[in-house]
Amino acid sequence: MKSFFRNVRLLDSTATDGASAPTCLRVAGGVIAEIGPALRPEPDETVIEGQGDLLMPGLVNGHFHSSVNHMKGRLPGMPLEIFMLYECPEFDLLRPTPREAYLRTMLGCIEMLETGTTAVQDDCFFVPEPEADILDAVMQAYADSGIRARLAIDQPIVPELDKLPFLSEQLPPALKAELSRPPRVGHAEMQALNRHLIQRWHGSSDGLLQAAVSISAPQRVTPEYFAELDDLSRAHDLPFYAHMLETRLQRVFGQERLGGRSLVRYTADLGLLSDRMNIIHAIWIDEADMDLIATSGANVAHNPNSNLRLGSGIMPFRALRDRGVNICLGVDEAIADDAVNMWLVMKTAGMIHSLTDPDWLHWPQATEILAAATTGGGTAMRVPGLGQLQVDAPADLNLIDLSAIAYLPLNNAPRQLVHCETGSSVRLTMVAGRVVSKNGRVCHLDRASLLAEAAACLGAKRRAVEEAAAQMDDRLPFYRAMYLRAMETPVPMARRI
């Protein structure tokens, strides 16, 4: 596929209004082939009339859990440790069919593509446990959608009581015994599934689909499994996903269970902190943690909407950036953000950090937020050139309507993109040189049929979801007691206003 963008303005932070003079851009072989005002279309190229509108890189959803795309609005705001109790109880009645898994994944793909997100890192968890046919259904949805995606299998392999401080002493004997049992899928089974993911899907769809690895979080796996996944990551040059210090309770976990070490220090002590790692959230980190992250070259995935919804706190954005840490942005999951829209994530990221420092010169600039949502995501995904407007970079692009109200008048494109845009001004979205959405609608899928089927299929799952949640009500008092005790335990920092 060869395309020619004529009369476009490129996103350019050095320009007075943040956009270049009108120019042309050629796409061939899935990458940007040429840029320049004197270019002319060739006979075999599809011409896209830019009309003086803004051409920018596609957005990268740097952290996502696709498994709950069908649960928007399902839960109120509550702390993560309580939220997870209701989000994904490991009950057989929640087991999806492959078609359910396909449809719920496709919901996220459609929402992302129609709002200009062209790439995603899916740290996918599977309830009640991962299965090859469900994994394949998720990947097939990504393949059919045309989005660029990396997927890892997020699955704890230690008992529930090993993951949380103080819970054991709160429980009655029968429930304590139940939560002491290991998950049904263990170390060996998980490694077989990781091999399946890599062998069947890594590099498929002309390279748009790739694998990653995930431990979920350091406290949710054994050191042996952690090390084996690092070996797998190194052997295939895969990103390595790890939730760390999302909540104050996780900071307390380190104090209580790891000899006072943070989860970052624990990971470094294992020799497993590297530039392949995506540290997800990184809110309750201290100065020493930040130094370790910076020295290792690890990436940090910032999920401000989810962090606010769950009351987790505010990531130290400026302190990480001042150390040269690469930051990407993520939705986290539809049930915690209640949208799969990276523009909304950017807007929150562009404002929330003003609460953490009275010196406005330290607040993130719009250009930094845009970089996190584009080049930052590309770096975290380990895809060279992703998120950049330059020759040989992947042709993952958005054409933004500058006649939309958000840009009237065009004062500063980066600021207006971050603070004014919702996705409604995206005229066209392209992934690897293929147009996947026009005027806010995917153009290569039977959208109406897919959404109608999803409404019927996933709507029928509501009763099972409600029944599973009701069964968790009996556990709530014990988890609440654990949570409140953790909140009373002193920690050497503040990350909530």
Question: How would you describe this protein?
Answer:
- With 497 residues, the chain is α/β, with parallel strands linked by helices.
- It has one domain (58-398, 443-488): TIM Barrel, CATH 3.20.20.140.
- The chain has helices at residues 80-87, 98-114, 132-145, 173-179, 187-201, 223-236, 248-257, 263-269, 287-296, 304-309, 317-322, 334-337, 342-352, 366-373, 375-381, 413-419, 447-459, 462-472, 476-488; strands at 2-10, 23-28, 31-35, 46-49, 54-57, 59-65, 117-124, 148-153, 209-211, 213-214, 240-244, 277-281, 299-302, 327-329, 332-333, 397-400, 426-431, 434-438, 441-442.
- The strands form three sheets. Strands 1, 2, 3, 4, 5, 16, 17, 18 and 19 form a nine-stranded mixed beta sheet that branches. Strands 9-8-7-6-15 form a five-stranded parallel beta sheet.
- Helix 9 (287-296) links the parallel strand 12 and strand 13.
- It is globular, with a radius of gyration of 22 Å.
Second-tier CATH architecture = Alpha-Beta Barrel
Shape: globular
SS field, number of helical segments: 19
Any idea what the CATH superfamily is called? Metal-dependent hydrolases
Poorly predicted runs of 5 or more residues = none
Main pleated-sheet profile: 9 strands, mixed
What value does the Rg take, in angstroms?
22 Å
**The level-1 CATH class:** Alpha Beta
Name the beta content range.
15-25%
